[in-house]
Amino acid sequence: MPNTDNDRFAKELGFRVVSTSVESASVVANVQERFLNGVDIAHGGFIFTLCDYAVAVASNTDERIAISSGATIDYIEPIPPNCEVCANVKPIVITQKSGVYNVVISASENPDKKFAVFSCRMIFKAVKHA
Q1: Is-contact 41 78, C-beta < 8 A?
Q2: E strands, 1-130, where?
Q3: In this predicted model, what pLDDT tens digit does every residue of 5-27 receive, in sequence order?
Q4: Cβ distance 116 to 75 under 8 Å?
Q5: pLDDT, tens only, 25-75
Q6: Pair 8, 74: CB distance under 8 Å
Q7: Using one digit for the tens of pLDDT, what is the confidence trace for 71-102?
Q8: 40, 53 in Cβ contact below 8 A?
């Protein structure tokens, strides 16, 4: 999927896609020192961006382009430095024109350890073929 494969910001942040299936995805990232906020926990913007990218991976296909039209996030627990986290995306409602997805951020080594929950609405646009 060129629109997610070419995401330079996700590459800069070290996001790695570990699995994809129809409308679902798992993306991992390591909370490096440079991604910490002033109180030495993962910056909220880093976690939000991870969720946003994971939804893009899950919702973009060769037949359409998906663009976020709104999102919310609830931070449950602080994420410490050097923690590897996983963003797991699940579809909630998918229609022809849009979809709503949930993402759970958890510790890669302990999926029961939840850090954040993200909800996003995507708008689908058809790909124009030349």
Answers
A1: yes
A2: 16-21, 24-30, 64-75, 84-94, 98-107, 110-126
A3: 788 999 999 999 999 988 899 99
A4: yes
A5: 999 999 999 999 999 999 999 999 999 999 999 998 767 899 999 999 999
A6: no
A7: 999 999 999 999 999 999 999 999 999 999 99
A8: no
Side by side, the strands of the sheet bearing 98-107 are 16-21, 24-30, 84-94, 98-107, 110-126, 64-75
CA dihedral 78, 113, 117, 53 (to 10 degrees): 90
Please list the alpha-helical segments (H only) found in the chain. Answer: 2-5, 8-12, 44-59
Q: How large is the C-alpha radius of gyration of the chain?
A: 14
pLDDT value at residue 48: 98
Contacts of 29 (CB under 8 A, 6+ apart): 13, 14, 15, 16, 46, 50, 84, 85, 87
Report whether 58 contacts 3 (CB < 8 A): no
Task: For 7, list phi and psi in degrees, rounded to 5.
Answer: -75, 100
